[in-house]
Design a protein that fits this description.
It is built from 23 helices and 2 strands. α4 packs across α9.
């Protein structure tokens, strides 16, 4: 294990991240409503920390293997989440404790969207912008960005790419070289973000709100600049734009790359992918169920208003964004619980969504059907195919292993929260919100997470990391075999 080389790389990445503190400082300078000094101070501290890690080890350049790649990813997210908490700790407005600052930072970076802040409408614009920026940076994965623009790292980028990109099959690259892959994905990510911001702006948002909400939408994060979230705008057009871009961000970005490479945005490029078809079908079914139940209970004045809220809220929760137009926790209890369960599915592999991912659920279903067939024909040989491609048994085993680990982590986190004094519904929804990188919860955490205990906040921070790094990337560090030379 080349520890000094790893420290050198983490130092470079922290130094790079420090520059993002300057953007909120510029926002503070423009609006002159506070927050500028906190971000300048945070920039200096982060830069010095990064240089302190890099300078003594600047000549420690080694080719790193997969073990080092996993460790760098975990270290980077934990260190970066900690450094990202600096502005929150330095500021008087908002006045946050250490655990609250870490919670908000990790929630932003992991695109969870759970918040301990209230009174967002009165906060300085710099802090509002910073929260959204954290989500945007975390959406595609800062490590992929760093590998693209820092070839001087001198490491095997594929090791980082495998540890960072979500999904069960991680060896598929859209271009032959990892740096080109990372650049291509980020160009597409940036293009979609700009398109989303322009759409929001044209629909009536201010330029500031349009940029901030495009960050959170494309990252499937869920932070907003207003306490009422998307409900603040009271616009069916903005709701529809949000739904469209959430669906776009919930699709595997390699499909976006294929569409851009062919210079064709025809729907057929996407509908040929079996995972996308299942993903869209899930969204339609959920929206239809929500619409029917809300109509039956007459929650809204007209069928158009009902359809607007049903479509928006079902897509927002199912893709793990967590935006809201109304208090969905106040809907008939069946719907909030149904939507919370839908967040376990999340987006497609290779998307910015959280959850288990659609393709894993598809493979679990296919494996279950194969076992039923084997009961009837024990000697028959059945191969599991995804589309026209037969999958190896190793992939199926990995999916089952992931599902088992996900379930165990969920249970342990829920029991841990209940041990802090949470009731069952609140603990369940809090773990769903954090482990699935969803954001909103039910019960006591329906409005925000500020009233949870300090211990509960740290448990939920750990759950966010497990969810963002897809369990195994973090869990592997706790195995003795990982540390053996």
């Amino acid at each position: 294990m080349h520890i000094l080389s790893i420290i050198r790389i983490v130092g470079l990445l922290v130094a790079l991240f420090s520059s993002t503190m300057l953007l909120p400082a510029l926002v503070a300078f423009g609006y002159r409503d506070g927050g500028g000094s906190e971000f300048v101070s945070a920039f200096v501290i982060a830069l010095l920390l990064g240089m302190a890690l890099w300078f003594p080890n600047r000549h420690k350049k080694r080719e790193l293997g997969s073990r080092e790649g996993f460790l760098i990813v975990v270290l980077f997210w934990t260190v970066l989440g900690s450094v990202g908490a600096l502005p929150f700790m330095l500021g008087d407005v908002p006045d946050m404790s250490v655990s609250e600052a870490f919670f908000e930072s990790f929630s932003g970076l992991t695109t969870t969207g759970a918040t301990v802040l209230t009174g967002l409408d009165e906060l300085p614009k710099a802090f509002l912008f910073y929260r959204q920026l954290l989500q945007w940076l975390g959406g595609m994965g800062i490590i992929v960005l760093a590998v693209a623009i820092l070839p001087l790292l001198g490491i095997g980028g594929m090791q980082l790419y495998r540890a960072e990109i979500p999904g069960p099959v991680k060896d598929n690259k859209v271009t032959p070289r990892i740096a080109e892959t990372a650049k291509a994905l980020w160009y597409i990510y940036l293009f979609i973000t700009i398109a989303c911001a322009l759409a929001f702006w044209s629909a009536g948002m201010t330029l500031f709100d349009a940029i901030c909400h495009s960050f959170a939408t494309v990252a499937i994060g869920g932070f907003s600049t207003h306490d009422a979230s998307m409900g603040y705008f009271n616009s069916s057009t903005i709701n529809l734009i949000t739904v469209i871009f959430l669906l776009i961000a919930g699709v595997n970005f390699t499909l976006h790359f294929a569409a851009f490479a062919q210079r064709s945005l025809r729907i057929g490029v996407y509908l040929r992918d079996p995972e996308v078809k299942v993903f869209l079908a899930i969204q339609l079914v959920l929206a239809f169920i929500c619409f029917l139940v809300l109509m039956a209970h007459s929650n809204y004045g007209s069928w158009k208003e009902t359809l607007d809220h049903a479509l928006f809220q079902s897509v927002s929760i199912a893709t793990t964004a967590g935006f809201s137009t109304a208090g969905f926790a106040e809907w008939p209890l069946f719907l909030p619980v149904l939507l919370m369960f839908s967040s376990f599915v999340g987006g497609c592999a290779g998307s910015t969504g959280g959850g288990i991912k659609v393709v894993r659920l598809m493979l679990l279903h296919l494996q279950g059907m194969r076992e039923l067939k084997r009961l009837i024909h024990p000697k028959a040989v059945y191969r599991i195919k995804l589309g026209n491609k037969a999958l190896s048994e190793r992939v199926i085993e990995a999916v089952w292993g992931f599902f088992a680990a996900y379930t165990i982590i969920f249970i342990l986190c829920m029991l841990g929260l209940m041990a802090t004094g949470m009731d069952e519904l609140t603990a369940f929804s809090a773990v769903v919100a954090t482990l699935n990188n969803l954001g909103p919860g039910l019960g006591e955490v329906a409005p925000h997470f500020a009233d949870t205990t300090e211990t509960a906040k740290w448990i939920m921070i750990l759950a966010m990391l497990f969810g963002r790094l897809e369990i195994f990337t973090l869990l592997v560090l706790f195995t003795p075999a990982f540390w053996r030379s």
